[in-house]
Design goal:
Distance between the termini: 84 Å
Helix content: 40-55%
Shape: elongated
Strand content: 5-15%
Number of strands: 3
Number of helices: 9
Oligomer: single chain
Radius of gyration: 21 Å
Strand order of the largest sheet: 1-2-3
Length: about 200
């Protein structure tokens, strides 16, 4: 009877376990390949660009691997847009986005699309840090904020352009091309404020 009870407890624990324990489970559940795993690190600090401050760490290497794996998914002749999203705050979206952008920039990619609403630091501070670490990088702000102070501070910090999130999907790649051509794309409403 004790063996049956033990098997019943183990079976119940097995059936009620909803934790993901391996990469193969993730790939099996959602049908998508896992491009990389970024480990946690005791060196995560307020530097922002971990890939610059700790270029030989496991985290930096994992982000470089993620960049390499993303290159395999490029369709010939088409540019890619990378979206990092989650429904839970504190999972590291901003950290991954900023450092993946840094790794792409170090590999001669030229434009970072940056939201001003970064958790833990202002987007303007993020622009300053990125420009200090990667001076050849262009930063295109993509934000919901359209107040004069944020727009002006972002441009003064080194942003090459400013788009509102009300922009159409067609406007975003066009703005990136404009930045790469030396322009300074802005929504009409933002441009009017800058001129005032």
């Amino acid at each position: 009877a004790s063996i049956i009870l033990m098997l019943l407890v183990i079976g119940t624990l097995y059936l009620t376990n909803n934790r993901i324990t391996s990469l193969s489970e993730i790939e099996r559940i959602d049908g998508l390949p896992v491009l990389g795993i970024v480990p946690s690190s005791k060196y995560l600090d307020d530097v922002g660009l971990h890939v610059i401050g700790h270029p030989k760490s496991m985290v930096t290497e994992a982000i470089r691997t993620l960049r390499t794996n993303l290159d395999f998914f490029r369709v010939q002749g088409l540019k890619k847009v990378i979206a990092i999203s989650s429904t839970v705050s504190g999972e590291g979206k901003s950290f991954i986005a900023m450092n993946l952008g840094g790794v792409l920039a170090l590999s001669k990619k030229k434009v970072i699309l940056l939201d001003l609403g970064l958790p833990g630091m202002s987007g303007v501070e993020g622009i300053k840090r990125i420009k200090a670490s990667l001076p050849g990088i262009e930063i295109l702000v993509f934000s919901v904020f359209d107040d004069n102070e944020r727009v002006f501070n972002a441009i003064c910090a080194g942003a090459s352009g400013y788009l509102l999130k009300t922009s159409s999907m067609a406007e975003i790649p066009e703005a990136i091309r404009e930045v790469l051509a030396g322009g300074a794309p802005m929504n009409a409403r933002i441009a009017r404020r800058v001129l005032e």
